[in-house]
Amino acid sequence: MKTLTDEEEVEISQKIFGNSNTGDFSAFFDVYNEFASKSTALKFGTPSGPKHGSEPLSYKTTLQVIEVLSKNPCAKRKNVLQEMRRIINSGQHTTEEEVQQALRMAVRATTMTDCDAKRHHGTDYAIADYTPVSWASGETYIEFFKRSIPGFRSNEHVPPTDDVVLTGDTKDSLTAWNLKKELRIKFRKTDDLARHLLFDSDRNVLFLFHHAQFLKAQIGKQLDTDDPLSRTIEDSLKSGSLPPRLLFETLYSLQDILFPPHDNRSARILEKLVYKRRNNFDRGCIEYDGCLPTDQLPDNFGYVHWGQRLLRLHQHLRSRPPRNKLERWLHKKSNEGNPLFAALAALCISICVGIISIGLAGVQIWIGWMAWKHPVR
């Protein structure tokens, strides 16, 4: 697929982020162009379009599939694909894989998730609480998205009871600088929202969904509602957006937890991630432009979707692994698997201290006896 023109980018951003948004979506379109370049030929029929032939997947295709998804987010995948085939030009020589790729492109553009994530991993692939999720044929769009992102409840109208409120020392300990200092964590960007705050302890890598401008634009698109946090996933997907609470949590976890503006050391880490030459983070991450309307958030705002992953990070901090030979030796000898050794070590230390005490007492007695025997005149 050819690189999008400025006019085409504007049209796509207006569809996904709203007509009034003019932000810098370069990071988003980098992902879009990379994904689309791997796509095969597909063309939807239009009244004036050609009836035969084939051409690379166009941005018009993506917009039309997004329209299909937003009209009925309760539709099953097989029904969505059936509708897509119906509006594909009957004379177009398209394969089933081309239709599937068009669906993946639209889901990626609107939700930043992979609806066929299982294709890229083995059946036993897992990192912490994350396992790849694919949109099943008999599953609705909403059901797929709920399985992809942790924390969704069966009844969205019931207030959350398992949300995680981070305050005080717990919140302060989760800054990027502290995580890097204590755990030697490496921060890696991810373009998959489902992998946000995923900590790979084997590689000591923390994945962060870095598309801050995407999050800000979708938040701004839904702020006109009276209570954005109570908006259901169905209502959000119908408008072509993600649920506001998920958007708030993701952006807050970046700009309020990991990289708070008042923490200069964490801010410097973020600047390096944004300005490095390769695999750099979205520039919107360092723009603390007041897009987070605190007046619409409760004082005890809790993390429903990312709370458990944040708590897991905090638990790693509390049980920080040893970093040098002495710490590793002490950890090995004092863990729960060696209680007898620990008891023997304590006994030996007590015996040594007792012997030293007896020796010192003997020296004091001898000094006293010599002072009595040979008084100074």
Describe the protein.
49% of the residues lie in helices and 3% in strands. The termini are far apart. α3 (59-71) packs across α5 (96-111) and α9 crosses α11 (244-258). The chain has a 3-stranded mixed sheet, with no helix packed on it. The chain is mostly helical. It contains 15 helices and 3 strands. The protein is elongated, with a radius of gyration of 29 Å. It folds into 3 domains: 6-148, no CATH class; 168-318, no CATH class; 325-373. Keywords: Membrane, Transmembrane, Transmembrane helix. The chain crosses the membrane at residues 340-367.
Indicate the topology.
Elements: H1 6-17, H2 26-37, H3 59-71, H4 77-87, H5 96-111, H6 141-148, H7 168-173, H8 176-183, E1 186-190, E2 198-200, E3 205-209, H9 212-221, H10 233-238, H11 244-258, H12 264-275, H13 307-318, H14 325-334, H15 339-373
Parallel strand pairs: 1-3
Antiparallel strand pairs: 2-3
Transmembrane segments: 340-367
Keywords: Membrane, Transmembrane, Transmembrane helix
List keywords for this structure.
377 residues; mainly alpha; 3 domains; three-stranded mixed sheet; transmembrane helix; membrane; transmembrane
